[in-house]
Amino acid sequence: MSIKFPEGFLWGGAVAANQLEGAYNEDGKGWSTQDVAPQGIKGPITEVPTEDNMKLVGIDFYHRYKEDVKLFAEMGFKVFRTSIAWSRIFPNGDELEPNEQGLQFYDDLFDELHKYGIEPLVTLSHYETPLHLSKQYNGWVNRDLVGFYERYARTVFTRYKNKVKYWLTFNEINSILHEPFMSGGIYTPKEQLSKQDLYQAIHHELVASALAVKIGHEINPQSQIGCMILSMPTYPLTPNPDDVIAAMKSEHMNYFFGDVHARGVYPGYMKRYFRENGIEIHMEPGDAEILKHTVDFISFSYYVSICETGDDNKRNQTEGNLFSGAANPYLKASEWGWQIDPQGLRYVLNMFHDRYQKPLFIVENGLGAKDELITGEDGVPTVNDDYRIGYLNDHLVQVGEAIEDGVDVMGYTSWGCIDLVSASTAQLSKRYGFIYVDRHDDNTGTLERYRKKSFHWYKDVIASNGESLQR
């Protein structure tokens, strides 16, 4: 029996501005937190951008976007997820007036997408806080960032109200728990950051996100505004009740963000956590009302599942995107140690649907691997990435199963649809794309684009609306 996806399903791909645009100091752009993180999420930060930072050039999408959008259209994309670099619009983040050159770039990009009938799906803040806001204000620890973000959101919602229908407020908002600088622009070193300051920063982000929903709907009532969560389903390592409760607590720390976005209130389990950890969230008058502006849909990334246990000696045996837990003995892992679990995607979709009863959008999923460029039968360079095709096929089959389960799934955007600089490692050798970009970790390469085998496979998947997938 073939897989059936609903009519109008939004097939496409996903990227982030800081991982592919380059042009870090052109046309009035200010520095962002990404410009001083040359080794990725877990590496040290520098005072100023340094030449070893691959993201300063990315894949030069800033100058080559027309070529790339044409390739996306050739695959049949219905939607393209990207982000706006906040520091292109407000270079320091606290200016009163935006940078017109930055606004014009995204006008041109969105126009190019619409030329091919591709809907933009735009993330307002994707691991890219203006560096000035990080260093001078300590990022989202400071309440002032709510106002700066509100001004930024109002500016782009107004500018692009007739060009962008789908918006996301923060990328993987729950990742701030583990990477506060990259996710929340918090300049205090992670090991010195108190739980009080961390959760106050989270409160500020949640208020800002709800404000964005309110403002976006006022400016364009037809717009669809979602949150974006790093999903990592947590299984108990054994049926031992201690492991089951450990898994539940782990899930709570991620569900918390979706619960506030979808329900508009702080859940009881977090109030208990705050009490037991001496955390007192300071709420300004009106915050509780603002939080009631809930999202239209829930979007999320999915790469890996983890196991949890009550036995600390069995933890930290596997690597994930940002989180770690106990290794699942039933799963294999990728080259980077991420355990591969297609059924986990069906599980996540069902859990989110049961919990929130809102439409769901898978906005990141993919396989990072070291691709080998070869000469194809037609003499054109290509990559025989059957491993990527197998990975994506198996995950999309599970999306189809979830749809059969009754889950409302809006769309699917494969992560890194064109090779880009990895967020976690700042390498280009960790490739996700359907399109190979000739750039390498030593900063060499022509930046030429080549279609991989998976390019043609995904084109067939989209053209058949999923019927070409193999169970």
Automatic annotation (TrEMBL):
Active site location: 364 (nucleophile)
Domain of life: Bacteria
Keyword Transcription regulation: no
Keyword Transferase: no
Any GO molecular function: beta-glucosidase activity
A single GO BP: carbohydrate catabolic process
Entries under InterPro entries matching the protein: GH, GH_1_N_CS, Glyco_hydro_1, Glyco_hydro_1_AS
Family from the record: Belongs to the glycosyl hydrolase 1 family.
Designated name of the protein: Amygdalase
Organism: Paenibacillus borealis
Source lineage: Bacteria, Bacillati, Bacillota, Bacilli, Bacillales
